[in-house]
Amino acid sequence: MSTLPTDDSRPPTMDRPLHIRQVEEADLPELVRLDAEAFPEGPYPFFTLRQLFDLYPDHLLVLDGGESGLHGYVLVGMPRDAGRGWILSLGVTRDRRGRGHGRQLMREVLRRLRDDAVHEVLLTVEPANTAAIELYRSLGFLAESAPRKDYFGPGADRLVMTLHL
């Protein structure tokens, strides 16, 4: 049996099914790698992901490919008023984008939030990220009328979107 890439140049492991699961402490180094690949312009530092894992372990889900590693994740922060959650990050590796994995992660985390009696979910997205905006709208998120200027600092505008569960 050959281990050469298929005709679309993807290694054979790319066709193996992925599954969504809750993150484990041992996943943190791989999660840092994944985050840097998904967000090369501004990944979370290791210590931040560590602290977010400590704060929100039930709402940090990964897309696990087994031997091929982690290929996506979604992270929800839960402020003190447990009726509201914030999608802090949704990332999928470049080689897995466009296959519905972000949608799968979002559906699973939204299901879990409903089970936790969360009634409102918010997120921010870069206004130029039309693919993400379309995904969020298709899941029922509504955008504020205009992006918030300098939301994450000078030049880092963000569109705030809300979903009522």
Keywords:
alpha+beta; Aminopeptidase; seven-stranded mixed sheet; disordered N terminus
What's the structural blueprint in terms of helices and strands?
Layout: E1 19-22, H1 28-38, H2 46-55, E2 60-64, E3 70-77, E4 84-92, H3 101-115, E5 120-125, H4 130-138, E6 142-143, E7 159-164
Parallel strand pairs: 4-5
Antiparallel strand pairs: 1-2, 2-3, 3-4, 5-7, 6-7
What does this structure look like?
The protein has 165 residues and is of the alpha+beta class. The chain has a single domain, classed as 3-Layer(aba) Sandwich (Aminopeptidase). The chain has helices at 28-38, 46-55, 101-115, 130-138; strands spanning 19-22, 60-64, 70-77, 84-92, 120-125, 142-143, 159-164. It has a seven-stranded mixed β-sheet, with helices on both faces. A hairpin with a 5-residue loop joins strand 2 (60-64) and strand 3 (70-77). The termini are far apart.
Count of distinct structural domains: 1
SS strand fraction: 15-25%
By CATH reckoning, the class would read Alpha Beta
Mean pLDDT: 88
Termini gap: 49 Å
Relative helix content: 25-40%
Report the structural category: alpha+beta
Order of strands in the sheet with most strands: 1-2-3-4-5-7-6
Number of helices: 4
Indicate the low-confidence ranges by residue numbers. Answer: 1-14
